[in-house]
UniProtKB/TrEMBL annotation:
This is Ferredoxin-NADP reductase. InterPro entries: FNR_nucleotide-bd (IPR039261), Riboflavin_synthase-like_b-brl (IPR017938), Split_barrel_FMN-bd (IPR012349). PANTHER family: FAD-BINDING, PUTATIVE (AFU_ORTHOLOGUE AFUA_6G07600)-RELATED.
């Protein structure tokens, strides 16, 4: 079968920079069919919705999610006529910029009007791409479209990152909320940005203009699906002259390494996007200027990312109730979705910026010893190759295990989908407090850090660490230590150079391994109080909720090995929820009750309740610090609201990096 596709310089550039194997580069033309395969024809004919893109008379791509089914109009649908001809009758809103672009004259009279699309079946994650030219097009006033599409590029795609959902036709009354189709804009309104924030699905349209027809490379368009956990597309703004420019950032998830979409962007920055909000029927259409950022440039904008696309918005249309589809099921996110990654400026605003050490020498961390705190919680003590200025107690360290664990690229991994985008970097709370220097009135630099990690069922790094600790110690295997950061701490620096201070009354609420930031906070308080007698005066109540023998971690706070300094007091309330007849849970509870009950520890074999917080003395005068599972922190926030504890006194760990 004759092939027409030939990779252009943008695709080849990215394939080279990103080390695409030559076998894939050479094989790409053979994956793209000139004629529509029969299975693709059957697939498209059965679709109820179809993302399609074209260009307006300024050459800007606009893409829409067209609805190709309707309960009350049998004419709406898709019919494949012959090998490469497809008739599409679809319903959209009259405000749809794709429909409005069809009503404009092409940029150059007599030229073919290009199109591209990607068929997606959200019920089973199947998708196929196609592209070509529009033979005929008509747009009725109500938004009904009639298209004849002549396709000459057909490519099957993998199902990764597609959200499974069930959609049925639903006639809505569209309302235009924002419109800059005919004017240039660089700002998005708040309700448009909210659509982006909620999206787990976006479609991206690109184009390539062949300047040398003799090269065999054709002018064409492309449409691709981008998916991830809600929020995977980040939004930020910058001052732009007298106005504001809005940027969208799409991290590149591991794909087939063809780089067709990103290759187009290398040669032509104009792109189009559509963000359908399936929950409420709103649709956001965007056009803009894109650029690909690689390696250090990508990392600077979005840490832990080596390839992303940044799009400066130049036009947008937001249509409320513009999608004639209704969601009738829960959405099932793809198991291949990596965690949402945040922009550096977002991390800075949340206090989670990474502080790297001065100098060019990389720092490594070598596991020296461990301590078992419970069956599933272990403290790992690392020696660093160079001393570091540790953050205030409660901060974090970033460990990179990629040099010892990364096995290279894999396209699919049904047994463990998360490995496809795994970077083997972990950020853990530093559970040890640095020593405090009375003379300099600051925490000292040091070359030892500890992290306390709970084994997570199915988790990669927690199981690697727990299962291979002895091997890592014996073989002295170093891992890269990328830096540290702060953000969740009860300490505040003194503006005049004095010792750091803490609130005079505190309530610490912790659940499970969320106890870890409180471990260095407590140790740090004792070290400062001993080094600078009389400086600190604080009364702390620690409320801890743990399962089974996890309550054993409270020994860290009730240990009799070091006397509590004058002016510092700590009372611990621990609540154990145990599995039925769990022997280790009962024995742990009994042992703690017998040996530590007179040392400021109260134990209960039940769940934490609102009355337990209500009974904390001087509750409304305390600064409250919360860390643990989201469910616990949500419950704590609700309980504290009912108990009239001011929001300004609540500090919730929002650790997301």
């Amino acid at each position: 079968m004759a092939q027409i596709h030939k990779s252009h310089k943008g695709e080849l550039l990215l394939q080279e920079r990103l080390n695409t194997p030559q076998l894939i580069v050479d094989g790409l033309p053979h994956f793209i069919d000139r004629d529509m395969p029969p299975q693709h024809a059957d697939f498209f004919a059965g679709l109820s919705y179809l993302p399609l893109a074209t260009l307006d008379n300024q050459g800007r791509p606009w893409i829409s999610l067209l609805v190709t089914t309707a309960d009350n109009d049998p004419s709406i649908g898709i019919k494949v006529e012959g090998k490469n001809t497809m008739d599409v009758v679809a319903q959209t809103s009259p405000f749809d910029p794709f429909a409005r672009a069809l009503q404009q004259q092409p940029t150059s009279p007599g030229e073919e009007r290009l199109f591209a699309g990607v068929g997606v079946d959200f019920s089973n994650r199947r998708r196929n791409k196609l592209a070509g030219s529009i033979g005929t097009a008509s747009v009725e006033q109500a938004g009904k479209l009639r298209l004849r599409l002549n396709s000459d590029q057909h490519l099957g795609n993998c199902p990764k990152y597609i959200t499974v959902r069930t959609l049925v036709p639903a006639q809505r009354k569209a309302e235009l909320s924002y419109d800059s189709f005919d004017t240039s804009t660089s700002a998005l309104p708040a309700d448009a940005k909210a659509v982006v924030d909620r999206a787990s699905t976006v479609f991206l349209a690109t184009k390539h203009s062949a300047k040398d027809k003799a090269s065999g490379v054709q002018t064409d368009m492309g449409v691709n699906h981008r998916g991830g956990a809600p929020g995977f597309t980040r939004v930020y703004e910058e001052e732009d002259g007298d106005g504001v420019a809005t940027y969208l950032v799409l991290p590149d998830h591991s794909g087939n390494r063809f780089y067709q979409t990103l290759g187009n962007i290398e040669t032509d920055p104009q792109v189009g996007l559509v963000f359908p909000d399936f929950a409420n029927g709103h649709v956001l259409y965007v056009t803009g200027e894109a650029e690909n950022l690689l390696n250090a440039d990508a990392e600077a904008l979005m840490p832990r990312t080596n390839l992303l696309t940044r799009i400066k918005v130049t036009g947008a249309v937001l249509v409320n109730n513009g999608l004639n589809l209704r969601l009738t099921s829960e959405e099932q996110l793809s198991p291949y979705n990596p965690p949402v990654k945040y922009l550096q400026q977002e991390l800075d605003e949340m206090g989670h910026a990474i502080a790297t050490q001065d100098g060019l020498t990389a720092i490594t961390a070598t596991l020296a010893s461990t301590q078992d705190l419970s069956e599933s919680i272990k403290t790992f003590n690392f020696e660093l190759s160079s001393p570091i200025d540790a953050p205030m107690p409660g901060g974090f360290g970033v460990f990179d295990f990629s040099k010892i664990l990364d096995t290279g690229y894999s396209h699919m991994n049904e047994a463990n989908p998360k490995l496809v985008n795994e970077d083997y970097v972990r950020t853990w709370t530093i559970s040890s407090a640095p020593d405090f220097d009375a003379e300099s009135r600051s925490f000292r630099a040091g070359n030892r850090v500890s992290v306390t990690v709970k084994r997570k069922p199915g988790g990669l790094m927690s199981n690697v660490m727990h299962d291979n600790a002895d091997k890592l110690i014996a073989q002295k295997i170093p891992v890269d230590f990328k830096g540290t950061g702060a953000g969740f701490t009860c300490f505040s620096p003194d503006s005049e150079g004095g010792p750091p201070a803490v609130p005079t009354r505190m309530l610490w609420v912790a659940g499970g391994v969320g106890i870890t930031p409180f471990m260095p906070m407590w140790d740090g308080i004792k070290k400062v109080a001993i080094a600078v007698p009389g400086h600190l005066s604080t009364d702390i109540v620690l409320v801890f909720a743990g399962r089974d023998d996890d309550i054993n971690v409270v020994r860290h706070f009730i240990s009799q090995s070091s006397a509590i300094p004058s002016g510092v007091s700590l009372n611990v309330l621990a609540f154990q929820s145990a599995r039925e007849q769990a022997e280790n849970s009962l024995s742990t509870f009994d042992d703690l009750s017998q040996n530590l009950s007179d040392g400021g520890l109260t134990l209960e074999q039940r769940r934490l309740q609102i009355d337990d917080l209500r009974n904390v003395a001087d509750l409304q005068d305390r600064e409250v610090f919360m860390c643990g599972p989201d469910s616990l922190m949500d419950w704590s926030d609700e309980a504290l609201t009912k108990l009239k504890v001011a929001e300004t006194r609540r500090h919730r760990e929002s650790f997301i990096f």
